[in-house]
Write a sequence for this structure.
C-alpha cells in the first residue's frame, strides 16, 4: 500500500507544478488578490478545524449516550424475573441457562463505541467544515468582481500550463506519474 492512499500522508503534486503555481501566484495576481486567496484558504482551514472538533465532541457524546442506554437496559434486564426452567407439552422440564453475564456491557464494546463514534463524528464534522468553509471562501473571493476575474484568469492560465506540461511529457513518452513527481 502506498503512502499516497491516505490523504494525510499525501504529498503535493510535484515540485515542478508547485513552482509553476507559485509563479502564476506572483505574476498574474495583484496584492489584493493574493490577500483574498490567503484569506479564503484561512477560512477553509478554520471551518475544517472547528467542524472536526465539534464532530469529534458530538461523536464522543453519542457514544456516551449509547453506553449509558446499554447499561440501563442491562440493569433493567438483570432486575427482571427470568424463567429458570422450561416445561414442554410432554411434561419434560429443561433448565434455562442464565444469560446475564453474556449481556453485560464490556470494556471492549465501550472502546469500540467511542472509537467508531469518535472517528465518525470527526469525519462528518470535517466534511461539513469543508463544505461550509468552501462556501465562505467562495463568498470571500466573489466579493470583488474585478479581483475574482483576475483570479479566474490566473487559474485558467495555470491549468493551461499544466496541461501543456503533461502533453509534452506524454510526447516524450514519459508517464504521467513521472510528470507529477509521484
Amino acid at each position: 500500500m502506498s503512502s499516497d492512499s491516505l490523504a494525510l500522508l499525501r504529498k503535493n503534486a510535484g515540485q515542478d507544478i508547485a513552482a509553476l503555481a507559485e509563479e502564476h501566484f506572483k505574476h498574474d495576481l495583484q496584492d489584493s488578490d493574493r490577500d483574498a486567496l490567503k484569506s479564503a484558504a484561512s477560512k477553509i482551514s478554520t471551518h475544517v478545524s472547528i467542524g472536526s472538533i465539534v464532530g469529534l465532541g458530538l461523536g464522543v457524546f453519542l457514544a456516551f449516550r449509547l453506553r449509558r442506554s446499554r447499561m440501563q437496559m442491562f440493569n433493567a434486564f438483570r432486575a427482571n424475573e427470568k424463567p429458570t426452567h422450561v416445561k414442554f407439552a410432554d411434561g419434560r422440564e429443561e433448565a434455562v441457562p442464565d444469560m446475564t453475564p453474556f449481556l453485560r456491557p464490556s470494556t471492549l464494546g465501550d472502546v469500540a463505541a467511542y472509537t467508531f463514534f469518535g472517528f465518525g463524528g470527526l469525519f462528518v464534522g470535517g466534511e461539513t467544515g469543508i463544505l461550509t468553509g468552501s462556501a465562505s471562501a467562495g463568498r470571500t473571493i466573489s466579493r470583488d468582481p474585478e479581483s475574482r476575474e483576475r483570479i479566474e484568469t490566473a487559474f485558467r492560465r495555470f491549468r493551461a500550463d499544466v496541461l501543456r506540461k503533461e502533453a509534452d511529457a506524454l510526447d516524450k513518452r514519459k508517464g504521467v506519474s513521472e510528470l507529477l513527481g509521484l
Q: What stands out?
A: DSSP finds six helices and two strands in the chain.
